[in-house]
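README, section 4: Worked example with a bound small molecule

Sections 1 through 3 covered apo chains. Here we extend the same pipeline to holo records, where the ligand is supplied as SMILES alongside the sequence. The molecule in this example is nicotinamide-adenine-dinucleotide. Nothing else about the input changes; the structure line simply encodes the ligand pose together with the chain.
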Amino acid sequence: MGIKVGIIGCGSITKLRHAPEYTANPFVDEIVFYDRNPERSEALAEMFGGTVVQNVDELLTDSTIDVISDCSSNESHHIFSTKALLNGKHVLCEKPISLTIEHAREILDAQKQSGKKLMVDHNQRFTRAHQKAKEIIQREELGKVLTFSTTFGHSGPEQWGINKTNSTWFFQKERSGLGVAGDLGIHKVDLIHYLLDDEIEQVSAFQGALDKVNENNEPIEVCDNIVSSLKTKKGRLGTAAFSWTYYGEEDNSTIIYCEKGILKIYHSDEHQLEVITKDGEKVQYKLENIQTNNNQTNSGVIDAFIESIRLDQQPLVTGEDALLALKVILGIIEAAETSKVITI
Ligand SMILES: NC(=O)c1ccc[n+]([C@@H]2O[C@H](COP(=O)([O-])OP(=O)(O)OC[C@H]3O[C@@H](n4cnc5c(N)ncnc54)[C@H](O)[C@@H]3O)[C@@H](O)[C@H]2O)c1
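The generated complex, written as structure tokens:
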């Protein structure tokens, strides 16, 4: 018998990643879609094959469903993911895991209580250039990491979300919570933790709602830009910039500066990883373009999640990893709001 999956929330991330990747996974038999806007679940059931339910409890109490993808908006993750785990489902929760540490802990506690798998969709870890960079850093091919700089910016979620208007939930404080920091920044925080095998410990930051406006033409309630300086537990220093106002071209790049050279990741379209050594040697890797709003290829996340269930292994991104990334993002926002250096 194959695996039966329920998906909560049938917006862009479900349409572009979860539904196609479950469909392509050979161990998944069936998908059941749920959205509080039924026309969205029906459209995806038609597009990918599958059935729909009219309310979330039908999914959560269906004993034939093994797995839930929680693709609802940020403020609901702790409600759906907690319930799904306590109902005996394995859960792949979208990022950010939640908007508060307390809510993240509810999900983590439910995971412990149920013994089911919980993975959070920090998909940056899975891209080929990030995997290769991790290998080089781990082997200390360029010596130890000293400093880093990371950026994630595009033209904004009102171009991405299913509801392509300025009334998007991404711009609302009570639903998006953390603005661009929770939307894009949290990806890079998790990536830095992963690549460097380290944790960000101290942060300072500036933020602003510089350009985005809501449906009433007022500045949005959350930050559309945030920049930060970071210090890790192992003493590495870094800078980070996260933006919803990079009009014209997305920037998804990271540079890692080591004792014997530099790793440039997603700087050039042609060579997704470039290694430049102290003595001037340059090695360029042609791997694969990163998934962007305009380039949706298999992220590898769903396959890894299904594999962790089948082989009964710890998922590659745990609830604890996601909580750690959330704590750093909350720290960055607090630093920006208080103009203080925050220790995570
Ligand atoms: N991992 C990634 O790279 C990535 C990329 C984009 C979005 N996301 C995350 O995925 C989640 C969904 O984002 P999206 O871009 O698909 O948003 P979206 O606005 O396109 O879609 C969200 C869908 O969820 C439904 N929904 C929201 N709350 C619900 C509720 N309480 N009950 C029932 N349905 C509900 C909405 O009706 C909508 O159809 C967010 O948490 C977002 O941060 C992750």
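What to look for in the output: The chain has two domains: 3-116, 125-293+324-343. The first helix runs from residue 12 to 24.

Section 5 describes how to batch many such records.
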